[in-house]
Amino acid sequence: MLLNIEHLSKYFDAGKVQALADVSLHTVAGKTYSVLGESGSGKTTLARLIAGLERPDNGTIYLDDTLISSDAMHLAPEKRAVGLVFQNYALFPHLNVAQNIAYGLRNQMTSQREETIRGSLDLVNLQGYQQRFPHELSGGQQQRVALARALALRPKLLLLDEPFSNLNNTLRIALRDELFGILKNLGICSVFITHNADDALAISDEIIVLRDGQLLQQAAPQVLYEHPINRYVAQLFDPLVAMPASLLQDFGFSPSPGQEYYLRAHQFVLAEKPSDYQLKATVMQSNFIGKHHLLEVKIKDHSWKIHGQAHVPGTEVSIGWNEADLLRFPKE
Predict the structure, then answer these.
(1) CA 227 to chain CA centroid, nearest Å
(2) CA 278 to CA 317: how far, in whole Å?
(3) What is the spatial distance between Cα 223 and Cα 215, in angstroms, rounded to a whole number?
(4) pLDDT tens-place string over residues 226-258
(5) Rounded CA gap, 179 and 173, in Å?
């Protein structure tokens, strides 16, 4: 294990607000982890505790078998071998690119420092940008400089706190794939803090889901997507359609007492394709939303919004689904 966190808790407002509640997790070297959650889930607090910007109230944090934080011991951030890339880049506006990267390299000899700066800029494809100032760079270039500054310190672990939230969607995807490709090639373990499930699925070896300061599930992306522990985890990735017991019975399926059933909106099968269970439905509305049409369909007294092909409102269609896709959770 590289990062080992046991029973970590953090309170604010004189103990009235619990930001993290008994969180335990671990990472291994060379892999990419995403901490996924909505606002207020505790993900940024977790990152700040790992980086040493906050002290835990309970629990321990070990990095490479060395204790770096507990309720009784706190190693300074600059001594942790943990790099941090902020959401707002946190570049010094009065320093040029080379000076920003060199900020944490004051203990190096001048020649070594210059070599480290060049090497860090090579890694992020910003050769020749040493003399530019932050205001002369695009958002994507500023993010690369922030990454280069973090990598210059040769961290064992790199934390990235919502690093793409200020970028447009096209640039976000391109920069995301490039930066995490760099980290993979370097073999650096990274922990990516995000509220974007698509980003988490795209780059992670494992995803850690937080809600209200509690760790709900840690698993590989496919495992998490196909076998979410509860409805909250499932709906982070796709809209869910509730399948009431009475309607499941109309389909010919026998629900179990004490369970709730859901399907993802894209898992319904229309018309000519075979499926395990089918019923007739009426299309109430059909809207084109890019990759597919969003259909509002009605079966008896139930209305759903599902993905499919264009249909004229009023058309009767066959709606089907496969039992393997059905998500089942204990009733809350």
Answers:
(1) 17
(2) 10
(3) 16
(4) 999 999 999 999 989 999 999 999 999 999 999
(5) 10
